[in-house]
Every structure is written in C-alpha cells, then in structure tokens.
UniProtKB/TrEMBL annotation:
Its cofactor is Mg(2+). It catalyses: scyllo-inositol 1-phosphate + H2O = scyllo-inositol + phosphate; 1D-myo-inositol 2-phosphate + H2O = myo-inositol + phosphate; 1D-myo-inositol 1-phosphate + H2O = myo-inositol + phosphate; alpha-D-galactose 1-phosphate + H2O = D-galactose + phosphate. This is Inositol-1-monophosphatase. It holds the Pfam family Inositol_P. Pathway: Polyol metabolism; myo-inositol biosynthesis; myo-inositol from D-glucose 6-phosphate: step 2/2. GO terms for molecular function: inositol monophosphate phosphatase activity; metal ion binding. It comes from Pagothenia borchgrevinki. GO terms for cellular component: cytoplasm. It is an enzyme of class 3 (hydrolase).
Length: 280
C-alpha cells in the first residue's frame, strides 16, 4: 500500500537539510542572543528564521496542516495537539550549544496525525547526520538502520540527561539528586549532548542505553520519540506508565527492564504542561 505521508516525510527531510545549512552558516557569524522565560532560556534570530522557513515550506505544500513550533508558541501561538495533521517543530534543538558553538545542534521535525507520531526527522547538522523514522518503517541514520543497545545490565549502561534551563533551587536539587542516584547505581557514566533530540537519537543508535529529562517540551522530543520506538526502544513517563508528550517528562530506554530500573532513581516533579501554559 502506498505511504500516505511519503511526500510529507520527504519534504521534512529536505527542509531540515535546508534549515541545517542556515544554522551552519549562522555559526560563522556573530549571534545576537535574546532570552525567553529566564536569563538562561536563550533564543536567537536564527531559531526564529529557521522556524519560519520550515513552516513556510510546509504551508506551500500542505496548506491545511497545523503546527506546533517552539518559537511560535513563545510568540503566543497555542500549543495544541489535535487529531489534525500537525508538524511539531524545534528549529534549533540545542540553542545554548548553538550560542556557544558547542558542536551538537539539531533541527527536529515530528509529524503527528490523530495524536500519533507518523514520522520524525532529526538533522544533527554539524555532524551531518540525518536521523529519520517512519511509524512501522524503522529508524535510520543517513540511511543505515538503527537498533537500540541490547545491554540489560544497568551497571554496564551509559545514560544521558540534561540540566535544563530552570534555576529554581528546588528543581536544581531534584536534578542533582537524580544524577547522584543514577551515577551511584553505579552506571558506566552519565552524558548529555545539550539537545534532547540528539540524546534520543543516541538511545536509538545504541550509544547510550537511556535518556531521561524533566522540563523538556513536546517539540524537543516529538521526532526523537519515534526514533527510539522504531529502533526497538521504549518510552515511559519518569514515574512509570506511558509517556505523555505534553507532560514535559520523558524516559527513553533500550528496554522496559532498564527503564523500570532507572525509574527507581529519578526524583520526579511536574512542570507546567505544554498544553496548559498560555505562552512561554
Ligand atoms: O531550547 P532548545 O535548545 O530547543 O531545547 C533544549 C533541549 O534540547 C535541552 O536538552 C534541554 O535540556 C533544554 O531544556 C531545552 O529544552
Ligand atoms: Mg529544544
Ligand atoms: Mg529550540
């Protein structure tokens, strides 16, 4: 049967690549930095420009489709995931990396219909790695099929997480309690690429066994979520149970057993949901 979303997925890949060129070019010149929710929640003109480029390219071909874009939501657009075909866009995942020229930056484009992810595209533009996943069709990096790690022993595992952009002392305390607990299992180590999307692609690629974060947004993880499940991994909420893309909490792992083991170490909290916040 023909793939109903083939053309859309091809457009997502093509547009992510174009967006990557814009991001790489912007890294060669000085970047003027603005802030959003707090002094460490950064945004640049390139984030906004790339989001407009992606939205415009999609609108030209699919005028009826909806969007959830990080910078549009920051500008006051609603963050609503309906049953309609919806493009979930993070124009630069890893803006802080981008500002500092720390070399992990991604363009993340997820596409959902009936609230189900149909495809995900994450372009790690400085590494020139195009990660793609189609529901039921597998996960790939530059055309090579991805498979999560088969490591079942948590003590042989490496885990990704991030510190996020909240500096609320209670949140920082929980993040460090979780970090100490995960390190002390002991695991082989804890890493963070500085982008949720790439962290999830690392789980899909089998480089790390798991990634968890509280405080991310739907646009950080929508595309990466499909990469993980299509590579054979699992997604959960950090308190167990199914992941809710709007809840700002995610645990991605190579297996249910490893995910369940990590759950025991994560000090969870509940940020304001993406679909509850009027704007960021
Ligand atoms: O703002 P941005 O660079 O698109 O996305 C960022 C994430 O990918 C990062 O991993 C996370 O820790 C930050 O909280 C933020 O959400
Ligand atoms: Mg992001
Ligand atoms: Mg971003």
């Amino acid at each position: 049967m023909a793939d109903a979303w083939k053309e859309a997925m091809e457009l997502a890949e093509k547009t992510a690549r174009r967006a990557g060129e814009v991001v790489c070019a912007a890294l060669q010149v000085e970047r003027s930095v603005m802030t959003k929710s707090c002094s460490v929640d950064l945004v640049t003109q390139t984030d906004q420009q790339v989001e407009q480029l992606i939205i415009q390219s999609v609108r030209d071909k699919f005028p009826m489709h909806r969007f959830i874009g990080e910078e549009s939501v920051a500008a006051g657009e609603p963050c609503v995931l309906s049953d309609e075909p919806t493009w979930i866009i993070d124009p630069i995942d890893g803006t802080t990396n981008f500002v500092h020229a720390f070399p992990f930056v991604a363009i993340s484009i997820g596409f959902s219909v009936n609230k189900q992810m149909e495809f995900g595209v994450v372009f790690s533009c400085l590494e020139d790695k195009m990660y793609t996943a189609r529901r039921g069709g597998g996960a790939f990096c530059n055309g090579e099929r991805l498979q999560v790690s088969s490591q079942e022993d948590i003590q042989q595992a490496m885990v990704c997480t991030e510190f996020g952009s909240s500096r609320d002392p209670e949140v920082v305390e929980k993040i460090f309690c979780s970090l100490r607990a995960v390190l002390s299992i002991p695991t082989h180590g804890v890493r963070g690429a500085g982008t949720a999307a790439i962290n999830m692609c690392l789980v899909a690629s089998g480089c790390v066994e798991a990634y968890y974060e509280i405080g991310i947004h739907v646009w950080d993880i929508a595309a990466g979520a499909l990469l993980v499940t299509e590579a054979g991994g699992v997604l959960m909420d950090v308190q167990g149970g199914p992941v809710d893309l709007m809840s700002r909490r995610v645990l991605a792992a190579n297996s249910p057993a490893l995910a369940e083991r990590l759950l025991q170490e994560i000090h969870s909290f509940c940020p304001i949901r993406d679909d509850a916040a009027p704007s960021l």
